[in-house]
């Protein structure tokens, strides 16, 4: 039996005594794209933060296995080296650090953690050029401080470029459509789809079905009150768009 890229077993998590994740179970096989949809406050983004290792959250029960290895005891950088990538809803700005410098440092830190040699500059430049062409990221953008003064679309393209260079086994996209107009959404989605290779898995977290017109999922999960309450094919997203979340308990946000 093939080892899932991601397996979450009975995951419970809380922050400041408030339980947010209340028994999450999820399996993502290699190469599959799964979408999580749910209203505000259902716990979707908390799941992404817990996967990435954000320190504010206390795990009270359960396991998270990445390629068969429990990552809950790992630091965030160790999780990244193990193959996890989180694309933020709102990518942070880092004044004074050129985007190109950041990309090279991130890539070489990951390679070092895996016992691999650092990339030589010509090899790195070739990789960046190839990834940049795919995502409409030009050399001027790479010289600018990371995300400083970037439009919403530029921030997301820079982030998907990181993903293309780091080649994670699991990419978690937390509401990556936030703040994007339709043109930027198409560019970002094209970049994401180019990374679907039959082995890399993705978890796409979104409110809206429109993103799933561009990044078509294999499975859609409905998140409500801290857990997955229904799973189905891509048609489930269309049903949610038409009917909302009223059938899944709680009040609309």
TrEMBL record:
Keywords tagged on the record: ATP-binding, Nucleotide-binding
ABC transporter domain segment(s): 6-250
A GO term for molecular function: ATP binding
Keyword Nucleotide-binding: yes
Top-rank lineage group of the source organism: Bacteria
Family annotation (CDD domains): ABC_FeS_Assembly
SMART domains documented for this protein: AAA
Pfam family, one: ABC_tran
Family designation: Belongs to the ABC transporter superfamily. Ycf16 family.
Official protein name in the record: Cysteine desulfurase
Species of the source: Devosia chinhatensis
Lineage: Bacteria, Pseudomonadati, Pseudomonadota, Alphaproteobacteria, Hyphomicrobiales
């Amino acid at each position: 039996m093939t080892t899932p890229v991601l397996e979450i077993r009975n995951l419970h998590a809380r922050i400041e005594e408030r339980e947010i994740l209340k028994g999450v179970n999820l399996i993502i096989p290699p190469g599959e794209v799964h979408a999580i949809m749910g209203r505000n406050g259902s716990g979707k983004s908390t799941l992404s933060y817990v996967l990435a290792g954000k320190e504010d959250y206390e795990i009270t029960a359960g396991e998270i296995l990445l390629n068969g290895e429990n990552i809950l005891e790992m630091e965030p950088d160790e999780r990244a080296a193990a193959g996890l990538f989180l694309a933020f809803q709102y990518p942070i700005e880092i004044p004074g650090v050129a985007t190109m410098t950041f990309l090279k440092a991130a890539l070489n830190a990951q390679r070092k953690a895996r016992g691999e040699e650092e990339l030589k500059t010509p090899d790195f430049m070739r990789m960046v050029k190839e990834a940049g062409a795919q995502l409409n990221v030009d050399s001027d953008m790479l010289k600018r401080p990371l995300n400083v003064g970037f439009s919403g679309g530029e921030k997301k393209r820079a982030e998907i470029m990181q993903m293309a260079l780091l080649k994670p086994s699991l990419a978690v996209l937390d509401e990556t459509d936030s703040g994007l107009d339709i043109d930027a959404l198409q560019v970002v989605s094209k970049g994401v789809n180019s990374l679907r290779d039959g082995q890399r898995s993705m978890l796409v977290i979104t409110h809206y079905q429109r993103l799933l017109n561009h990044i078509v999922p294999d499975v859609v999960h409905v998140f409500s009150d801290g857990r997955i309450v229904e799973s189905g094919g891509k048609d489930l997203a269309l049903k949610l768009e038409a009917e909302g979340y009223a059938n899944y308990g709680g009040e609309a946000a």
